[in-house]
Specification:
single chain, mainly alpha, Globin-like, 8 helices, 0% strand, globular
Length: 150
């Protein structure tokens, strides 16, 4: 599948990917503090990520990623969510996205393979930056101690 078609497929199946991720976030023992966060808020954030993937992986989206994930990290810190759990939630989101790509992309040419590799690289890059900014927010949050204690 060509890159634009693959991105459209991901974005059009955002609800499905979000539901799979939510199931894991709500049951995973590594995300117990996140179980306390409003399911609606977590679902909205995940759905925004998957349904607007093209926006998040753009090369010039650094400012939006910085602002969004610093805000998210600060909020989770104030809610008492340990940074490890927030990072693990991002790891799970990336894993579910990549799993969806693997299940749904039919590669029929070397160009399609190259484009899938390019997309995966952009996805990894996005999640690396989102993780950095979310973690950075814990360092900058005045009440960061509350979010770092278990």
């Amino acid at each position: 599948m060509l890159l634009p078609d693959l991105i459209r497929t991901i974005e059009s199946h955002a609800d499905e990917i979000t539901t799979e991720l939510m199931t894991e976030l709500r049951t995973n023992p590594r995300t117990t503090y996140l179980h306390r966060v409003s399911e609606g808020e977590v679902r909205t954030r995940a759905n925004d990520l998957f349904s607007h993937l093209s926006r998040w992986i753009e090369e010039d989206g650094e400012d939006e990623i910085s602002q969004t994930y610093r805000e998210l990290g600060g909020r989770r810190c104030r809610e008492g969510v340990p940074p490890s759990e927030l990072l693990y939630a991002l790891v799970l989101a990336k894993a579910h996205l990549i799993s969806f790509i693997r299940r749904n992309d039919t590669i029929e040419s070397s160009l399609e393979l190259q484009q899938e590799c390019e997309l995966l690289e952009k996805i990894h890059h996005f999640f690396d930056r989102a993780s950095y900014y979310a973690t950075r927010a814990y360092e900058l949050e005045p009440a960061r101690g509350a979010g770092m204690r278990r």
